[in-house]
Design goal:
Largest sheet: 11 strands, mixed
Number of helices: 17
Number of strands: 11
Distance between the termini: 11 Å
CATH class: Alpha Beta
CATH superfamily: Amidase signature (AS) domain
Shape: globular
CATH topology: Amidase signature (AS) enzymes
Bound molecules: glutamine
Strand order of the largest sheet: 1-3-2-4-6-5-10-11-9-7-8
């Protein structure tokens, strides 16, 4: 029974709870037990919220019994990335510099999850301030991949991806600045969607690179991801960059199929050095789409290859500005010094990890008077060219298809001392962030080593309904089994 509950999707759990077959408290307790059984091996969570989760679930049960209205995700367990502010609950961003920080308010996404009655079972691990692609940059130790615990889950939303993959929760919230929802989703065999910039409010999302950051859903099925996105999307007066128009209908078209749809296969990416297993996964996706009646043709994004260079100037530039607020004065860690300046310097030296320091230095340099035009301004021009590439591609295509990540999950430690190798993980994901457009990663089978492969679907701004529809059709055709299996999987841990 307990195992069956943790295997279920959000849609299945909602149906079972709605029919009175199971109580929200039982659902949440089963997932908390699963977390307790897997956490020692995975370390997906920085904080498990047992008591508040059970109290929220009991409240859902009580309101259901009383016939009171319930939210769209009533009683469904959810793993929340620890970069979204939760009132009164520590929010660390995977950093020592926020030690002791308890936000006085909820992020809009958190408030909407609460209003939808999703039950937050814990806050998940991440690369410090979401800077990284492996979750190894967390100040609190790495998360491990449920498919093979000697490997990384990807990052920076590695904790949420691992939690969803390990059946700790059917739903996860991640954030994506350059791939941090999609790449860990690919490496952990789950679905992850980065929404159109502005579709989901950033109020209460601790800022990394404000022109790129987006919050989005992670789940084991496309429908669950659509359901979750629907619960958090839409205008927010607290975020002036949130889009004014209401969110598009995400569920209505989900089962319309892809017959006649024009799919552009990103040719540069195919010619590139991706791992054989990823290439095979992509081929499976192409064949499946063609079987379903879609028309697949090559397209070119001539400037996408410059995306990494532009991203790794723009993101650190914005980060260096955003992270100046951690000065030891207002919140978090403080290391005393003889002067304010010395206190701030010591606090930042002790509080930030190596990767964050590297980004602050790169960004400060890129924005400095003598180098601004050569680096930051140039990167912004590349950003415009990439947007134009996408616009041109969408003249002949409805969606684009390519790999999510050049490889599958790599061993812990393999890239941590080589920042450039780590950055190259993001080569296929950053163009959508630079363009502000939505993109989704979907599992497309396993490589020869038994590790999940992700393929990426991209659409123009506000094309989420199309993305989800294509993903839903592909998902049904590919019939991927999300259960981690293999010699070193978390399935060795029996609840
Ligand atoms: N891996 C990328 C980086 O390190 C993307 C991170 C993200 O999307 N938050 O910046």
């Amino acid at each position: 029974m307990t195992a069956a509950l943790t295997r279920a999707t959000a849609v299945e759990l909602l149906a079972a709870m709605g029919a009175g077959e199971v109580a929200a408290v039982e659902v949440v307790r089963a997932h908390l037990e699963r977390i307790a059984a897997t956490e020692e091996r995975l370390h997906a969570f920085l904080r498990v919220l047992d008591e508040p989760a059970l109290a929220h679930a009991a409240d859902v049960d009580r309101r259901r019994a009383a016939g009171e209205p319930l939210g769209a995700l009533a009683g469904v367990p959810l793993a929340l990335k620890d970069i979204l502010c939760t009132a009164g609950v520590p929010t660390t961003c995977g950093s020592r510099i926020l030690e002791g920080y308890r936000p006085p308010y909820d992020a809009t996404v958190v408030a909407r999850l609460r209003a939808a009655d999703a039950v937050v079972v814990g806050k998940t691990n991440l690369d410090e301030f979401a800077m990284g692609s492996s979750t190894e940059n967390s100040a609190f130790g790495p998360t491990r991949n449920p498919w093979d615990t000697s490997r990384v889950p990807g990052g920076s939303s590695g904790g949420s991806a691992a939690a969803v993959a390990a059946f700790d929760a059917p739903l996860g919230i991640g954030t994506d600045t350059g791939g941090s929802i999609r790449q860990p989703a690919a490496l952990c065999g789950v679905v992850g969607l980065k929404p159109t910039y502005g579709l989901v409010s950033r109020y209460g999302l601790v800022a990394f690179a404000s022109s790129l950051d987006q919050v989005g859903p992670m789940a084991r099925t496309v429908t669950d991801a659509a359901l979750l996105l629907g619960a958090v999307a839409g205008p927010d007066p607290m975020d002036s960059t949130s889009l004014q128009e209401p969110a598009p209908d995400l569920l209505g078209d989900l089962d319309r199929g892809v017959d006649g749809l024009r799919v552009g296969l990103v040719a540069e990416e195919i010619e590139d050095g991706m791992a054989p297993g990823v290439r095979a996964g992509l081929a499976r996706a192409v064949e499946a789409l063609e079987r379903l009646g879609a028309k697949v043709a090559d397209v070119r994004l001539p400037h996408a290859g410059y995306g990494i260079a532009a991203y790794y100037l723009i993101a650190p530039s914005e980060a260096s500005s955003n992270l100046s607020r951690y000065d030891g004065v207002r919140y978090g860690l403080r290391v005393d010094g003889a002067t304010t300046e010395e206190m701030t310097a010591r606090t930042r030296d002790a509080g930030f990890g190596d990767e964050v320091k590297r980004r602050v230095m790169i960004g400060t340099h890129a924005l400095s008077a003598g180098y601004y035009d050569a680096y930051y301004a140039q990167a912004q021009r590349v950003r415009t060219l990439i947007m134009r590439d996408f616009a041109a591609a969408y003249e002949s295509c409805d969606v684009l298809l390519g790999p999510t990540s050049p490889g599958t999950a790599f061993p812990l430690g393999a890239k941590i001392d080589d920042p450039l190798a780590m950055y190259l993980n993001d080569v296929y994901t950053v163009p959508s962030n630079l363009a502000g457009a939505p993109a989704l990663s979907l599992p497309a089978g396993l490589d020869d080593g038994g590790l999940p492969v992700g393929v990426q679907l991209m659409a123009p701004a506000l094309g989420e309904p199309t993305l989800l529809r294509v993903a839903r059709a592909l998902e049904a055709e590919l019939a991927f089994d999300p259960t981690p299996r293999g010699a070193r999987s978390s399935e060795e841990v029996r609840a």
